[in-house]
Amino acid sequence: MRSKFFIGIKYLRQLGFRPLALYALYKFGLLTGHYKRVTPATPNHVNLNFYSLFTLPLRDQLSQTLGEDGRADLLKEADEIVNGNFRMFGADPVEIKLTGDWPLAHWTDFETGKIDLRPLTFDIKYIWEPARFGWAFALGRAYHLTQDERYTEAFWKYFESFTKANPANLGPHWMNGQEVAIRLMSLVWAAHVFESAPATSVERRGLLIQNIYAHASRIPSTLVYARSQNNNHLVTEAAAIYTAGLFFKNSTWRKLGWKWLNWAFQNQIGGYGEYIQHSTNYHRVMLQTALWINFIKQDAFSSKTSQAIGRSAHWIFSLLDNASGLTPNLGANDGALIFALSSAAFEDYRPTVQAAARAFLRTSLPSGAWDEMSLWFGLKAADRVADSSAYLTENLRGKNSWAYLRASHFKSRLSHIDQLNLDLWWRGLNITQDAGTYLYNATPPWDNPLVTTRVHNTVTVDGRDQMTRAGRFLVLDWADAHSKNLIETDENVLGRVRAYHRGFHGIKHERTVTVHQDERWIIEDKLTSVHRTPHTYRLHWLLPDYEWKLEEHESGIRLQLNSPHGWLILSSFIPHPSSFSASLVRAGELIHGQRDVQPYEGWVSRTYGQKSPALSLAFEITSEFNVTFTSEFTFPP
Fold first, then answer.
1. pTM for this one?
2. Residue 1: pLDDT above 70?
């Protein structure tokens, strides 16, 4: 009880009174039955007119943009959906399940726990994901390209099945405003694409429009919850309300959605463009929402909103790996891809970066199949073509390599405890990797363990995190990091950055990263303690699952990795010979040295619910003195 009290005090001090008050108001609405009254199980049917918000791209232009390979990829995915399967979280196809064995009760009964879904699933995301209707984008794109009615019939079959099994405000698919919002935007898009299809009868069209209206009616009543979270919930819910306001010419919804959209963009995007949730995946969710609104809007963004969105486009552009289309797997990654308007892989960020660059930066990536999203959002190629190296950021860049050093200030709940994590890329390969998320809600040890400092490419002290993990999704005692680029006169040095934090109380961790002309990267980690007390310092690198050779010598180790581009070398050492231990773990199993292995070590997850083996290298020393680790990455010519 005492522990919960102190956690509450810390929470209040760091997040402020407002989000707690808003959350308490939401809980009060549940407790009193208010939400059950204002979102009835049998909403009134009204005579509805709806209005077109956008035009479809020219079919020839779509075909040209896709090319033969893109066309084949799209039709393969659409055919999978026709046959009853979709690619959940961008992974291998699984059955589309839009119905379940839960009772047909009001959504508040699920939200308050009166009805427990745990017998049906360990993670609610597996119930919610197919009902976001993300697969409808593949069907709609395939139908527009080919005019094949199989894709239209498949959409209507699944829509009618969902509607029959999940009436408005009944069941778990209505319990979360964001899920309702994402589904609403998918359905509005589908209403446009399938509008003129022969299979779209008057009855079907009417059912869809009534359903969209029921979705729109559900969201405003619990917007207070989205405001308490102040994250992607608010962005997507405000966007859905605004979309419905335009679709039905409802001025109340239009004004409400526009108000909170502008507020969210201005308050959730930082001065350097990073999104408030410190996650590349959530950053993409926000930016795709901004692209959708930019496409359909009938109001002008304020200058502050435009500047904020522009900064966010700049930030994600600077983190794009030009060779692969990937970005660092920073922060929480829940597998969200809410506007799947491209056949690119889930982890390929080029469709979103290309569209955002054209919409908000007046520039373009080189053209490719990833241009399809831009086409659907009505965005033409810009005169200026650039890659991520053209953007001035604090990222260091070599001739064929680059790195992102994590050094952040926190204004809201962070995703991962990852200060001074280093993401190193070389010729399209992610050499030092961020482990990602894998699962939020599984049983231990997979109850969101990849949040911890231990699995990131940084240093831990005495087995502690840099900050306090107070719950599965709650981190307190935020430790800000400070960084600066150093000016160098050595012509052999391309760039150098230094950053530090004091998250380990009484100990300062300072990391200096240097890239040389010959493609060598040197990382120096200094651990300085205020008191002369023994501490255990652990340097960790999460590396690709390549063939390896490890040699230990008096003052360090030499690890060779056989990458697709040849053998690369990682050397880690300390200046003076001392007692140290080195260990290597793969997929939760010790393969070299001695170490207490956690089952979640030696894994990487590029999307939700999927994990792949990786090499977890730990270099550890116990000392009462200050310690310096030096690591050197050497790449073949």
1. 0.96
2. no
